[in-house]
Amino acid sequence: MKLRKRDYVISYFLTVVFFAAMLNSPVQIQEIILLVIMSIFPALILGTITNVISLLIKALQIYIRKNS
Questions:
Q1: What three-state secondary structure class fits 1?
Q2: Nearest residue to 23 via CA among 36, 40, 6
Q3: What's this model's pTM, rounded to 2 decimal places?
Q4: Which of 7, 36, 61, 65 could form a disulfide with 50 if both were Cys (CB 3.0 to 4.6 A apart)?
Q5: Where are the transmembrane segments (predicted)?
Q6: Are 49 and 11 in contact (CB under 8 A)?
């Protein structure tokens, strides 16, 4: 399975933005560092899910082409 780094990067930034939107102001530097670290795991999960979905779509397209 070819994993695309772009999916992980996009998922990471979306997760950071989502978590940052939930912060109240004023924001301390410790909160920002914790937010950046905490965003890694959801981004890995979301990136993997998008890669698996794209793999399934490609496999389905190949299957349809062979059987049509």
A1: coil
A2: 36
A3: 0.63
A4: 7
A5: 7-26, 32-57
A6: no
Per-residue pLDDT of the chain (68 residues; tens, 9 = 90+): 556 777 778 888 888 888 888 877 777 888 888 888 888 888 888 888 888 898 899 999 999 999 98
| CA dist., res. 48 & res. 40, Å (int) | 12
Give Cβ neighbours of residue 54 (< 8 Å, ≥ 6 apart). Answer: 4, 7
What pLDDT was estimated at residue 57? Answer: 93
In 3D space, the residue among 13, 18, 10, 17 whose CA is nearest the CA of residue 50 turns out to be 10
**Cα separation of the two ends of the chain:** 25
Q: What is the DSSP string of 9-33?
A: HHHHHHHHHHHHHTPPSSPPHHHHH
Q: Which residues contact 31 (CB under 8 A, 6 or more apart)?
A: 23
